[in-house]
Design a protein that fits this description.
- Two copies of one chain form a homodimer.
- Chain A has two domains: about 1-85 and about 235-390, Alkaline Phosphatase, subunit A (3-Layer(aba) Sandwich); about 90-230, no CATH class.
- Helices cover about 30% and strands about 20% of the residues of chain A.
- Chain A has helices at about 1-5, 40, 45-55, 70-75, 90-95, 130-140, 195-215, 235-240, 250-260, 270-280, 295-300, 305-325, 370, 385-390; strands at about 20-25, 55-60, 105-115, 120-125, 145, 150-155, 160-165, 220-230, 245-250, 265, 290-295, 330-335, 350-355, 380.
- In chain A, a hairpin with a 5-residue loop joins strand 3 and strand 4.
- In chain A, helix 10 (about 270-280) runs parallel beside helix 12 (about 305-325) and helix 11 (about 295-300) packs antiparallel against helix 12 (about 305-325).
- Chain A is globular and about 70 Å long.
- The interface of A and B includes residues 2, 361 and 363 of A.
C-alpha cells in the first residue's frame, strides 16, 4: 500500500474528470503471417489520434514475467499493490456471480467431483456436469445450518459453485479440501490457526453432509472446497484519491472488483456502444469512470485473432463518443495481455496511452505494442497509472516543500 | 535508505572528481506555438557536446505522477530516499532562512492570521501582511521563555514566520494548530504520543501569549503553527560515499539541504558565472561539487517561457568554464520539472546527462526531454543518479565476489 500512502495526503478533489478505459486482454503477440499483433492489425484512427496528442508506454500489471489474473490486473490499474492486495479465490468466485458478500461471510470455491468406492478422487470436475445439473445439486446442499452458521450454496458454471458460511466471528484461515490431483482422498479441512478451529469443524461437518446428500448423484458424488476467504477491506478510491468513482462493466467479476474499491456500479446495456452511452449519461455525476470492455479478452482466450482485431476496431469506433465529451484525462490500457496465439492471459507488458492537456507528448502517433516501446511514459508498473492520471487531472498537490 | 546501505560498504575514496550541476526546474512542456520545450528551444552547444560524448536519460525524483517539492527533489539526487527522508515543514522553513537549527531544537512553520470576534479564522494569511510588518510582529513574540524553553521567532516572508523551541528533551510529535481552512477556530495543540505532552503544553501557552500580544494588531491578530519537527539526522555523504563534498548555491534552502547531508557550503556571488567561478576556485579542495542554479525554476514559476530559455542558454555558456577544468564525471539534471506553462513544479520526468570517460555512449547528441527518451540511461529513479556518478568516477568497488 506504499503508493497509496504517498497519494492519500496529497490528493485533492477538483472538477476535472478522468476516464480509465480498460480494453481487457488488449496486448497481443504478432501473427506469424503478418508479424503484426491484434492491435497493430486493427485500424484504430481514434486511438491513434489520442496517442498522437498524448503520451504512451508499456505497463507491467504485476512484474515482468508474471501473468496476472483479472483481479490483480485490475487492482494494479486502480493503484492497489496487486500482490499484497491479492483476493482469496472464494471471494473472487462469489464476486463473479454477483453474490452480495457481507463483511463477516467466509466464501469458498467449490467443485463437484467424482470419488470412487475407496473414497479417492477419480475426477476433480465430475465430468464437467451441466450448469443446470450444478444448479439442481446446489439447491440440495443450500440452506442448512451448522452450529448457528448458515450455509449458502450457489451454482457458478458446470462443476463450479460457491459456498458461503454466514455467521458471527468466523475465521477464514482454514486449509483446502481439494487435493488438486486424482487418486487421493479429499483432505480434511484443518485450521491454520487456533481461532479457525470452529470454522474447520463446521466445514468438515458440511462436507460430511454433502457426501451423504450426493451419494446417489454419480458422477457428482462429492465436493471439494478451496480458497476460504473473507471480503477484503480495501481503502476506497474516495479515501485515497478523493474521487467520486463509477464503474461501467458488463461482467459481474469487474463490477465486483470495482465495488471492492468503493466505486458505484452503473446499470448498462450489453454492447460496447451501450457502455459508452452509459458513460455519457452519467458524465456529470462522477469525476472518475472505469469503463471495462470484456470482448477482446474473450476473443483472445478463444484464440480468435481476427475476432479480436474486429472488436478492437469496434471499441475504437465507439471511442469517438468519449472523445467528443472531452474529459480532461483519458487513459486507455488493459489489465493484461491475452494473445490469441496463446489462448489465454499472458505476461507481456500492456500498451497504455494517456491523453491530457498537460502530458509531455512523445512523437508516437500509433497505438501499438511496438510504438509504445518508444513512448514517453517508458515501461512502468501498472500501479503508477492512477498517480499519473491524477497528476494530469491536476488532482495531486506537491509532495514535500 | 536501501540504496545507501548498498553503496556504503562498496564506496571508496579516490582522486577523481564529480560535479552534480542542478539546473533547478529544468524540465518543461512544449510551447503550444512551436511544440518545443524550454530546453529544446534554447541553443545549448555545451550541453549538447556533453550529451554527445556522454549518456542520458530521464529521472523520476519521487515516482511517476508525483510532483516533488525542492527538498525531496534534492534529497533524491543526493541518493536519499525522498519519501522516508521527508523533512518536516518547520525544519524546511528554518533551513530556508538560514536559521542554524541545533540538534534538539523543535521548529514550526507559522502564519500570522486573522480571527474574528468569535475566535474563528477569517483569513489564514492575515491579508498577506508586508514582510516588514511580519518582522515587527515577530520581534514582539520573540525571546520569551516558558518552563525553561526558549522561544525564538523569526520572520520569513509576508505572513510567514518560524518558531523555534529551544530546550532540553523536547519531542516534536505534536499536532498542528492550523485548521487549514477559514471559519474554524485554531486547534489546540495535542501530543501525538506521551513524551510530547510537555511540548504540546508549552506550545499552547506560547499561542495563548501570542493571542494577547497580537490582540491590537488586526489583521495579524493571531498565529497558526504547523509542521513541528526536529532537524533530521541523515548519514552524511562522507559516511555513505566517502566524498569530500561541497555545495555552491545562492539560496539558503539549497545550502541548508546540502548541510543536512554534511556538505561544506562555499561562499559564492549572486550570478551564475560567480557560482562556476567559485567551483573553479575550490576545485582542488573537494572531490564532489553540488552546483545549484536557481533561476530557471523561478522563470518557470513565473510562467516566463522566454526567460527560462535565456537562462538555460546562460547556464550553457557558463558551463564552458567547467568543461575546461575537465572533472572525471559531470552530471547535469534538475530536482524536478517546472514548465512555464504550468507556472509551478510538475510531475514530468527530468532530463539527465552523465559525462565521463567510462560511460557507454548512446548516440544522443542533443540535450532535451525528447532526445533523453532515447538515452542509454533509460528512465529511472533519481536516487540512482549518485550510484551512477560514483561508478563512472571509479569510486565503487564490486558488490559481492
Amino acid at each position: 500500500m506504499d503508493s497509496l500512502e504517498l497519494i492519500k495526503p496529497i490528493s485533492k478533489s477538483s472538477p476535472t474528470k478522468i476516464v480509465l478505459l480498460v480494453i481487457d486482454g488488449l496486448g497481443g503477440l504478432p501473427h506469424p503471417r503478418t508479424g503484426k499483433t491484434e492491435l497493430e492489425t486493427a485500424d484504430t484512427p481514434n486511438l491513434d489520434q489520442l496517442v498522437a496528442e498524448g503520451v504512451c508506454g508499456l505497463i507491467d500489471p504485476v512484474s515482468p514475467g508474471i501473468t496476472p489474473g483479472s483481479a490483480p490486473g485490475h487492482l494494479a490499474l486502480f493503484g492497489y499493490d496487486p500482490v499484497s492486495c491479492n483476493i482469496g479465490r472464494g471471494v473472487l468466485e462469489a464476486i463473479g456471480v454477483d453474490f452480495d458478500l457481507q463483511r463477516e461471510d467466509v466464501a469458498a470455491r467449490g467443485n463437484f467431483c467424482t470419488v470412487n468406492e475407496d473414497g479417492l478422487v477419480a475426477d476433480r470436475r465430475a465430468g464437467r456436469i451441466s450448469t443446470e445439473k450444478c444448479a439442481e445439486l446446489c439447491q440440495r446442499l443450500d440452506g442448512s445450518e451448522i452450529e448457528g452458521v448458515k450455509l449458502i450454496v450457489c451454482p457458478v458454471k458446470e462443476h463450479r459453485f460457491i459456498t458461503v458460511f454466514r455467521g458471527e466471528g468466523l475465521a477464514s484461515g482454514v486449509s483446502d479440501s481439494d487435493p488438486q490431483q486424482t487418486g487421493l482422498a479429499p483432505k480434511e479441512i484443518a485450521p491454520l490457526s487456533l481461532p479457525a478451529e470452529r470454522m474447520a469443524n463446521i466445514t468438515n461437518q458440511f462436507i460430511a453432509q454433502a457426501k451423504v446428500i450426493l451419494d446417489k448423484h454419480y458422477p457428482a458424488n462429492m465436493i471439494l472446497l478451496r480458497g476460504f476467504s473473507k471480503r477484503p477491506q480495501f481503502p476506497t478510491m474516495a479515501d485515497i484519491y478523493k474521487l467520486k468513482a463509477a464503474a461501467i462493466a458488463t461482467y459481474p467479476m469487474y463490477r465486483g472488483l470495482a465495488k471492492l474499491v468503493g466505486m458505484d456500479v452503473l446499470e448498462t446495456g450489453p454492447t460496447i456502444e451501450d457502455e459508452f452511452e452509459t458513460l455519457k449519461q452519467y458524465y456529470t455525476d462522477y469525476d472518475f469512470f472505469f469503463l471495462h470492455i470484456k470482448q477482446p479478452d474473450s476473443a483472445g482466450e478463444d484464440g480468435d485473432f481476427d475476432r479480436k482485431v474486429k472488436i478492437i476496431e469496434q471499441v475504437d469506433n465507439a471511442l469517438s463518443r468519449l472523445i467528443s465529451i472531452g474529459p480532461e484525462v483519458i487513459v486507455v490500457t488493459a489489465d493484461h495481455s491475452t494473445p490469441a496465439l496463446l489462448k489465454g492471459h499472458s505476461w507481456h507488458p500492456v500498451p497504455v496511452l494517456l491523453h491530457s492537456k498537460w502530458c509531455r507528448p512523445d512523437g508516437v502517433d500509433k497505438f501499438s505494442e511496438s510504438a509504445c516501446l518508444l513512448g514517453g511514459l517508458g515501461r512502468f508498473p501498472a500501479t503508477q497509472v492512477m498517480p499519473l492520471a491524477m497528476a494530469n487531472a491536476l488532482k495531486l498537490a506537491k509532495f514535500g516543500a
